[in-house]
Amino acid sequence: MAATNEIPCHYFTNDDGSVKVRAIAFDPKTLEEVKKDIEEYKWVEKDFLLASFPKNGTHFMWEIMTMLLRGSAEYIKDPKVACMMDMFPLKKTDAVFPSPRVLNTHYRLDVLPKEFRGRKTVLVVRNPKDTSVSAYHHEKNIHSVLKKDYQELTFSQYLKSFMEDKARFYGRYFDYVEYMWSLKDDPNMLVIFYEDLIMVKMLSY
């Protein structure tokens, strides 16, 4: 497990030395700023933390939580990435989203500094079958820009990596869920299943 001063970064280096993160290009200096801000961050009690494995409904849940905080169902035009602490410097988040706000991360809480643990946290969990399919298409679209071999990557090949490769983005899905599920009885942790969110959305029509 990474120490707090060794927060893992899962990025891809472009030919010009800049780094591509989920279709957003940052220079290496910005990435160091992201890591430094996480390590030095002082939690604001009015804020909420949204935790989820990639492709588990993070954006969907973030929209809901932010609308509730704002007391309005109006579509949020401000960029969600400003609250994505894995890729946006936390010290710059205030300018876009002042507290109270919903900060979100794909990291397991035991990877992050202790400052982020025991906070008001919403964990979103999605069926691994749907997660793997969604992640396959998402990552294939991103990586095909950087690595030509991804253009012909089959789902069967991808699934093997999804199931077994601990060096993937944020580690294995199953390791992530196993650890985060162990926190489900924390009084500050609310666990929500992605499938329940979708069902509520369907029933609302």
What order do the helices and strands come in, and which of them pair?
Blueprint: E1 12-13, E2 19-21, E3 24-26, H1 28-40, E4 48-52, H2 58-70, E5 102-105, E6 121-125, H3 128-146, H4 155-164, H5 173-181, E7 189-193, H6 194-203
Parallel strand pairs: 4-5, 4-6, 6-7
Antiparallel strand pairs: 1-2, 2-3
Please describe what this structure looks like.
The protein has 205 residues and is an alpha/beta fold. The chain has one domain: Rossmann fold (3-Layer(aba) Sandwich), CATH 3.40.50.300. The chain is built from six helices and seven strands. The protein has helices spanning 28-40, 58-70, 128-146, 155-164, 173-181, 194-203, and strands at residues 12-13, 19-21, 24-26, 48-52, 102-105, 121-125, 189-193. The strands form two sheets. The chain has a four-stranded parallel sheet with strand order 5-4-6-7, with helices on both faces. A three-stranded antiparallel sheet has the order 1-2-3. The longest helix is centred in the C-terminal third of the chain and has 19 residues, at 128-146. The radius of gyration is 17 Å and the shape is globular. The chain starts with 11 loop residues before the first strand and ends with a helix. Mean pLDDT is 82; it is low at 1-13 and 19-25.
Q: TL;DR of this structure?
A:
The protein is of the alpha/beta class and 205 residues long. The chain is built from six helices and seven strands; from the N terminus they run βββαβαββαααβα.
